[in-house]
Task: inverse folding
């Protein structure tokens, strides 16, 4: 499924996709389902529905993909465009990760285990991305916490990196 987010733009000239960043998101925090992620990524989150929404309603963010708890996916930004997912970030001393990365949000939290369906969908998508963007290697698949040290914690300790990487072999 596709739902276009306005929170994207062209990548800088010459920027090649070479990094995959895994995030998590739940709105309100710790709750799953509902239209709130779509609304956030489309700048129409209603501030009167939940107190947390008041603090984030003015954010202009997106990701390339969201993987829901059931493994279904929603694409918000085409892979050739720059999604606004990483914020202030750096990988191997190269700043501005949005310029050269693809961001995938998993519906979840740092503490609640992700679902088998999410891991399977993520692995399938990752394999396709690695085929289409050969500069994305296993060493260039990171969590948001890895590129935004001290600022972000996702996908958190609940994300099973070993299990996920084992699925990339197939």
Result:
């Amino acid at each position: 499924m596709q739902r276009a987010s306005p929170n994207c733009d062209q990548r800088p000239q010459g920027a090649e996709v070479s990094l995959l960043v895994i995030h998590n998101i739940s709105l309100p925090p710790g709750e799953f389902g509902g239209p709130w992620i779509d609304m956030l990524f489309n700048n129409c989150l209603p501030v009167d529905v939940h107190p947390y929404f008041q603090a984030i309603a003015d954010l202009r963010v997106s990701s390339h993909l969201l993987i829901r708890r059931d493994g279904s996916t929603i694409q918000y930004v085409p892979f050739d465009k720059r999604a606004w997912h990483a914020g202030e970030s750096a990988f191997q001393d190269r700043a501005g990760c949005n310029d050269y990365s693809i961001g995938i949000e998993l519906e979840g939290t740092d503490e609640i285990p992700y679902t088998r369906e999410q891991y399977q969908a993520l692995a399938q998508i990752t394999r396709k991305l690695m085929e289409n963007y050969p500069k994305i290697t296993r060493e260039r698949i990171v969590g948001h916490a890895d590129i935004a040290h001290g600022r972000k914690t996702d996908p958190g300790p609940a994300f099973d990196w070993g299990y996920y990487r084992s699925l990339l072999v197939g």
Summary: The first helix runs from residue 36 to 41. The chain has a mean pLDDT of 97. The CA atoms of residues 14 and 147 lie 21 Å apart.
